[in-house]
Amino acid sequence: MSVYLDYNATALVRPEVQTAVAEVMANGGNPNAVHAWGRRARAGVETARARVADLVGVDATAVIFSSGGTESNAQGVASALAGGCERLIVSATEHPCVAEAAAMSGAPVETWPVDADGVVDLDWLVEALKRPGRAVVAVHHANNESGVIQPIETVAALVRAADGWLHVDAIQSAGKVAVDMRALDADTLTLSSHKLGGLQGAGALVLKPGREAVRILHGAGQERGLRAGTENTPGIVAFGVAAQCAMRDMAQDHSAWRDAAQARVQAAGAVIVGERAPRLPNTLFMAAPGWDSPQQLIALDLAGVMVSAGSACSSGKTKPSKTMLAMGLEDVATHAIRVTGGWGTTEADWMRFADAWIAAWNARAARAAQTVTEAV
């Protein structure tokens, strides 16, 4: 049986979600219709809104549903600029959908460096916030590759003192660790259903009281006029159920299983990325010096273990991981893989990954030694 350890890319759809979605699809109805089936669909959307709000500790009226995290991040950036911000400060390890939304906004953008552990440089931010122009500061709660968790509360205090706007991408952290928007003191925050075990194609922008969102999709008046387009009722209902399940399951800490697998691969020769920083309990980001990411993925896949690369591959060429480059790990930036568990993961899955990786690593070393012997 195959082992799936790629939850940071997309979580397996939860059984509870599958059941709820099947019921919604069987019933039908446009949530904007006034007849009985429309009202039933509307009730499903609003129940989901309340459940998603509960996940991050806000009132349901703060949640604006969207097609996913990418759209919500774009809307968050646009809303900050429409709300009076004149420039952007974006962390160096930010997800491309945030970095590119900032770059395409037309406003000046500064890249906020991180240290060797992947944690944002707070001293740099203090100085950056002193520069002219009200700033929107965009930083993810946890990095999608390394799982490194950022000191959002401290960042928020600095942003508040400078009268800025804090946009937090909590797509990877929500459901894995506690995310309380009030405690984080973010102005806008984003979520995605499929990271929680819901369906792909649903996300949310969450607003702090007093903040307003600007529309980036125009048309009818859905989502209180803030996001045009008929609501994806099955996807939104799935989002709500997944959020509810994630809150229930958050007490199940997978870090001990991750740490045990990490110790084994590290002893065999792997480099652990972000090891000294706080990390998501489900995430192991590691590099194998001299062993390209695609080769590791193929070896593991042949052994029935599914993970992802820490870098993207295009036309047979491996691109360096942006996160690792920002951390100063140029030498191994094309040699990384990301191993991530979730609601369906067991301790045995983590051990099987470690077994498979170590076996492939040792086989590779043996082949290399044989080649040297034959050459001599």
What attributes characterize this protein structure?
single chain, 376 residues, alpha/beta, seven-stranded mixed β-sheet, four-stranded antiparallel β-sheet, 12 helices
Task: Please give a structural write-up.
The chain has 376 residues and is of the alpha/beta class. The chain is 41% helix and 15% strand. The protein is built from 12 helices and 15 strands. It has helices spanning 15-27, 36-56, 69-82, 96-103, 122-129, 152-161, 181-184, 233-249, 255-268, 293-302, 322-326, 347-375; strands at 3-4, 63-66, 87-91, 109-112, 135-140, 165-169, 188-192, 203-207, 271-272, 283-287, 305-306, 308-309, 313-314, 317-318, 336-340. A 7-stranded mixed beta sheet has the order 2-8-7-6-5-3-4, sandwiched between helices. A 4-stranded antiparallel beta sheet has the order 9-10-15-12, with helices on one face. Strands 1-11 form a two-stranded parallel sheet. Helix 4 (96-103) links the parallel strand 3 and strand 4 (109-112). Helix 9 (255-268) runs parallel beside helix 12 (347-375). The longest helix has 29 residues, at 347-375.
